[in-house]
Amino acid sequence: MSPFVLIHGAGDVGWYWHLVEAELRARGHDTVAPDLPCDDDTAGLPEYADAVVAATGDRAGLVVVAQSLGGFTAPLVCEQLPARLMVLVAPMIPAPGEAVTDYWADTGWDREPREQHDDLFYHDVAPELAAEARARGRTQSEARLAEPTPMRAWPAVPTKVVICRDDRLLPPAYQRRIARERLGLVPDEIDGGHTPALSRPAALAERLVSYL
Length: 212
Description:
The protein is of the alpha/beta class.
C-alpha cells in the first residue's frame, strides 16, 4: 500500500481526483487530494505547498501526483515530505526560480502550432461530469503568480511525466520537448485530453500504480 498525494491544477479543487481516488483505493492504496487556496489573493506557491503538507499529515513513502499548474507545487511538496516518487500529469514543469506568469513565454508555448478549440479542458469528459467540474471550479487568483518559485533545484526524487495524446492546452509535441529540455525525460503517454482524471480515471490510476 502506498499513499498517493494528488495535487489539482489552476482554479480547481481536490474533487477533480475523486474518480482516480476510487480506483486507487480499490487497489488498496491510500489517497489524499486537498483543496489548494488557489482563489485566495494572499496565497502563493508556498501556501499551496503548505496546504498539501498539512493535509498529508504523517504519511510516508508518498507518491506525489500533480496535474497542470500543480507541477509548480509538487516539487515544493517533495522538498518537505518523504516522497518516493513524483508523477507530473499533463503538467507545467517549472525551472528553478521561474514564475508561473513567465512559464508560457519561457517555454515557447505561444509559438507552438495548435488548432483552435472552444473547450481546452473537458472536451472528452462526459457532459454531466464536465458540468459538475465547471460548477465546482474556482477563480484562479493571479495576485502572486508573478512571484518566482522558491524551488532552487529539482528535488532529488525520481520523477515521471505523463502526457495526454489529445491535450488541447499543452499539446503532446510541446510536452515532449519541455520534459526533455527541463528534466531530461521521455514522457509516458496515455489517451485523453488535459483532464484525464475525469476522462480516463481507470487508465490513469493503472499507470500510476504501474510505477510502484
